[in-house]
Amino acid sequence: MDLFTFQYTQDSGWSVDEFPAVDSEQTLLLVFGGHSFLQDDAVIQNLLQHYPSSYAIGCSTAGEIFDGKIYDDSLSVAVLHFQQTRVKFVCSHVVDDSQTEAVAHKLATDLAADNLAAVLLFNDGLHINGSALIRGLHGVFDQKVPVTGGMAGDGEMFEHTWVLCNGKLKENHIAMLGMYGDALCFQYGSKGGWDIFGPERKVTRSENNVLYELDGKPALSLYKDYLGELAEGLPATGMMFPLLVFSEQQQDLVRTIIGVNEDDGSLTLAGDIAQGASTKLMHANFDHLVTGASEAAGEIKFDCCCNNDQTLALAISCFGRRKVLKDRTEEEVEAVRDVLSGDIKITGFYSYGEFSPLSSGTCDLHNQTMTITLISEQCDS
User: Which residue range(s) make up the domain with 160?
Assistant: First the structure.
């Protein structure tokens, strides 16, 4: 595999004089950028016109990761020219969130094949229920097909997010890319690092990803009591206090607020929250967050990767972590780099939710994690 990473910033322009001349049907472009490109995507179009035969996938962010540093309103780009791995891209508009599961199922079916090795997944971070999306994949992809990716973001605005679909920046879309063949090296790791506090509370009323009541009381009201003065910054400040959701029927999950409704006192979460489940609030411990990022990298095995300098580490971290770490956010990216080989190139973004397999092998939506995907080709490729 031939790998190239570069970026665009408003002040400096492109970090390369020429785009790598590797356009082909086995070339993949990963493009992560600020929400502002939705209003003016001329720079992205300039990039894509150099790769008419290649496949491009990506989304807007709550911060771009490039070469171990974090940027805003930039573009972080990785170009992967596979030697033997075949790629296929699909995307679709979701008119209404009630269609999410069916749309995701159709896209997964379009990608499904006996030699499907892995899938990358990105979606609108505000109008698409990540849990419903994942349900659409179940039954199509078995546990042998890992799915990783993230939900698009737009910083603290929570207004518009975009996904790259057929060369255009689109809202309310799901984009998926399948990679095929035995040559692909695709490893992943995902960890959190948040601390639990406060009493256990029962979900007494919820519907899909909307939480109405905890212990019979309006969820928004209870949340505001905990946040105090920080409640004025909702929903952005809610990212700093995610919910741990647990029950006998499912593995523990973390859910993050992406919207509030003052009229009915509800909270909209990035994924489903089951009625009858138990919850506890979580808060950040700086050292634990950085340790969690390091542990995510430590979960990855390097046994199938050939050349480290031709291996991409796709790092997707939750915006809530950035809200807490603030000026020290780069320390979690540095912690990842310390575990990985120094030759491995790192790109990625801050998201509103992360997709990664659970320990069982089944993919699920996570919030408040650092999720790392290593992409390369095996030595015999």
Answer: 2-191+287-377
